[in-house]
Every structure is written in structure tokens, then in C-alpha cells.
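User: Hey, my collaborator sent me this sequence without any context and asked if I could get a structure. I don't really work with proteins. Can you help?
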Amino acid sequence: MILILYIHVHIFSVPGVKDVCSVACGQQHTLVMTSNGRIFVWGSNKHGQLGVDPTVHSVIVTPKEIVLPQQPDAGCILLSGWTHAAILTGFCIQSICI
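Assistant: No problem. I've predicted the 3D structure and written it out in C-alpha cell form, which is a compact way to encode the shape of the chain:
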């Protein structure tokens, strides 16, 4: 038996975010990096996984740019899981949780 599966993909643009080169998704949150190293986050922040104080913003509805102590380069890797996120750079893993 041969099973053929067709997947229909919808590509959406995210207002205010352009030139995305990397994406990582968790259970209910998303991180993207642009080609010039800017990091944007949105979604659930219940555990502080987006790098923003969860008592102030438990949910981020529109993309929010986060600034890290060390600006990542375009070669870094975004990582995300159920309720966490991190950025792997050439130097170390920078957790964006607070």
C-alpha cells in the first residue's frame, strides 16, 4: 500500500516583523530572529519564557522586541520547548527567562 500525504502550508506575515531568518515555537509562544539579529517574542509568558516579567505581561499579543545583554548574531540558534526559551550563540546559551 502506498500512502500519499499532501500538506497544505499557509504562510502568514507578522505585523512589524520583517526579514525573519529563524523561528522557534513552544507550547503557546513564539520567538523569531531577523536577519540583523533582532529578537521578537509573543504568546504565553506565564513562566517568564519570553524574557518579560510574567506579573506584568502574562501574555504578549503582538510581537515585542527583547534586548539581550549580548546582541546575538545571525548565526545563533533559537531554542524553545514547552515552557522555556533560550538562544545558543557562539559564546554560551543565553536564557531569556527572567
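In plain terms: Residues 20-95 form one domain. You can pass these C-alpha cells on to your collaborator as they are.
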